[in-house]
Amino acid sequence: MRKSVLFSIIGMLVIAMSSQSYAASVDFSGQLRTRPETADNQHFAGTEKAFIGNRVRLSANVQAEDGVSAKITLQDVKKWGDSANTSTSQEEQSVDIFEAYFQVDSIKGSPLSLKIGRQTLVYGDQRLLGNLGWVDQGRTHDAFKAMLNLGNVKLDLFASKVREDVTTKGIADEDSDANIYGAYAVIGITDGVTLDVYALNWRDSSGGVQTKDIWTYGARAAVKVGGLKATAEGVIQSGTWDDRANIDQEAYAVAVKAMYSLGMFAVGGEFVSGSGDDDSTDNKQKTFVFPFHTNHGHYGYMDNFSWGNTTAYAIHAVAKPADNLTLKATYWFFQLTEGKGDWLNVAGTKTLLAAKAGSSEDQAGGELDLTAVYKASKSIKVVGGYSFFDAGDAVSVRGGDDGDSTWGYLMMIFNFKG
């Protein structure tokens, strides 16, 4: 039912916008993405699984008049075999509106532009704010964004409603919501050198038990000169983790990555570290947490780590034997920043392996990631990957299965415009 309604809306929009009395121009685009995956001992749980994920997106890009545009993207996400079309269930389908916003550029000739509605918030390397593109459903925000273009300085101010507390009696008190507020500036220093500075406020009391009021401040430098491409980012957090228990937030994170290209090859290295909590009784939450990122790939493709309570080193190698083929290899050395702290999941919001009383073991293990990207045509791309994780002592100490972990996938992507 929900799917029928959504596609009926799209149909009516097409008819309305294509009429000669309507001045808007409409371009359509879309994506079909299918990805089989298989995993053995994923997240050290000792289990095996295999499935095929599927994502369909259909976008309408509307240019109503000069400087006024809109975008609507419908999305359908499901696993193969989990569909009412091929079963007797009457489950609610996963078709939803991924994007729905309008944008006004250079209002009355000023440097101010506005974007209002459901949109992605993507900044820097997506370590803090990203569209979560790897995950089929992705991530968007119901947000208001003001964009100032001041030449070498571009400043975004935004407010996102993460969660509205809706009860059987209607909208609950405002203090029961979750919101993000942010200011993000990109400053052009010189050719090939930029500096990002930002301040983010995450306020969450939607659980009805505690209120988080966390401020995240950071800076990111990016350099692209000749064959060198490098970034360095540093972040600190302060504020309140739990107002009822009087627990403050005091955390940090850093990341440095450099790649050097020479012909068809590129090599590089990376260092990341996020603070962990070595004492859960001192009224200070010291693990770095900001769960609106795109963490996949930043801390190994097997998604065993987030930025919080992780310290890791990586060696990267890339080869491009043909214009349409790219081969990548990365090896990660992982340890926990604080062996007495919890090992968090990839989102950074839950515990993957809890701390063991009396143990400070911090050696998490090593991971090899192999990836091949083949561009078959202008519209078709195939991406395959295989990963292997060699567990360290911290896995078994915390009760995880320290046997070999493997993971593989083959992703087929078809993009189109019309």
UniProtKB/TrEMBL annotation:
<feature type="domain" description="Alginate export">
    <location>
        <begin position="26"/>
        <end position="407"/>
    </location>
</feature>
<dbReference type="InterPro" id="IPR053728">
    <property type="entry name" value="Alginate_Permeability_Chnl"/>
</dbReference>
<dbReference type="Pfam" id="PF13372">
    <property type="entry name" value="Alginate_exp"/>
</dbReference>
<protein>
    <recommendedName>
        <fullName>Alginate export domain-containing protein</fullName>
    </recommendedName>
</protein>
<dbReference type="InterPro" id="IPR025388">
    <property type="entry name" value="Alginate_export_dom"/>
</dbReference>
